[in-house]
């Protein structure tokens, strides 16, 4: 036992001080779990996407057009949660690769419509059937549950953010 009058050792430098136990650690943050899972998905998809010659954002754009071809840029942006200034360069690149075409809507010149070319539709056969369900280590039922839960989380956060504007 040290004597109460004994000199105290110097305090450690600030970067060596442990955070109080009551503060959450990085691993406790759901936002970090989602963020890092997104990065892991990017790594897992890399080989597939490299073979197809597209980025992940280009890929999900094509997938959204498989689901509903010939849609407006604004509608596609809403579906992908992308602003026009982010989506337009992606569309231009996919158009230059021959996977889609953009044209003004004859009924409303202010709107640009996007549709897949035959090459864009053929990407489905080339790589569209590959999924990472098995790589996730989840059962198909767990995978579906997680996907629905994360989607609900996203939607709730977007509602919250819109309510604070």
What report would you give on this structure?
- The chain has 165 residues and is mostly helical.
- The chain has two domains: 28-123, Orthogonal Bundle (Arc Repressor Mutant, subunit A), CATH 1.10.10.10; 131-165.
- It is built from six helices and three strands.
- It has a three-stranded antiparallel β-sheet with strand order 1-3-2.
- A hairpin with a 2-residue loop joins β2 and β3.
- The protein is elongated.
Strand order of the largest sheet: 1-3-2
How far the N terminus sits from the C terminus, by CA atoms, comes to 58 Å
Shape label: elongated
State the name of the first-level CATH class of the largest domain.
Mainly Alpha
**Which CATH-level-2 architecture of the largest domain?**
Orthogonal Bundle
Largest sheet: 3 strands, antiparallel
Total strand count, please? 3
- Helix percent reads 55-70%
Instruction: Give the quaternary arrangement of the chains.
Output: single chain
Q: Write the H/E string, N to C.
A: HHEHHEEHH
Radius of gyration, rounded? 24 Å
Please report which band the strand proportion falls in: under 5%, 5-15%, 15-25%, 25-35%, 35-45% or over 45%.
Answer: 5-15%
Low-confidence stretches: none
Could you name the CATH homologous superfamily of the largest domain?
A: Winged helix-like DNA-binding domain superfamily/Winged helix DNA-binding domain
User: What is the CATH T-level topology of the largest domain?
Assistant: Arc Repressor Mutant, subunit A
InterPro entries: HTH_MarR-typ (IPR000835), MarR/SlyA-like (IPR039422), Transc_reg_Sar_Rot_HTH (IPR055166), WH-like_DNA-bd_sf (IPR036388), WH_DNA-bd_sf (IPR036390)
Main location: cytoplasm
Subcellular location: Cytoplasm
GO molecular function, one term: DNA binding
